[in-house]
Amino acid sequence: MHISEGVLSGPVLLGGAALTVAGTAIGLKKIDYDELMSVAILSAAFFVASLIHVPIGPANGHLILGGLLGVILGWGAFPSILVALTLQAVLFQFGGLTVLGLNCFTMAAPAVICFYLFRPMLAKGTGSKFIAAFSCGFLAMLLSTVLTASALALSGDAFVNAAKVLFYAHLPIMVVEGVITGFAYGFLAKVKPEVLAA
């Protein structure tokens, strides 16, 4: 879901960068020293999952694991995603440095929202954990898609159709993201429950 360089308007880029700086500052304050390994591992998981991408107009479609990062890291998703996106921009030219702030915000903000919506539900263990984790992954991808499409639409009328294509093309990816998040959460709950309890 990386937006390419040279597409977005200046105000949209500056707004995304400012929000990412604020989110990253909060995330760095909230990360505990004991959580650094989890942040690094999830940053690597995000890096690998989002390397496999399909071009969709001026953006790319790929898994982001935002719901999983959000449920485990909370605000720590901002620095985690920022590091992964920076490496992708420098090493593989995915997205770019000028759109780094906006790309990070569109993926990390939904992760934080999912933390507040689903973490209490998953921690209490009420209902089906798979359905809750699926919903978390699905919603994170949905919100990321809406934010990315909105950024395109706000950059000019010429990108409104591209924003619509981006949204509809991501509908199947939302389902896949939800399924992967559900199974990944269930696996972690069995083999490494202390990561989820942090």
From TrEMBL:
Localisation per UniProt entry: Cell membrane
Membrane-topology descriptor: Multi-pass membrane protein
Alphabetical UniProt keywords: Cell membrane, Membrane, Transmembrane, Transmembrane helix, Transport
Cell membrane listed as a keyword: yes
Transmembrane segments: 37-56, 63-85, 91-118, 130-153, 165-188
Entry annotated with the keyword Transcription regulation: no
Coiled-coil intervals: none
UniProt name for this protein: Cobalt transporter CbiM
Organism per entry: Pseudodesulfovibrio sediminis
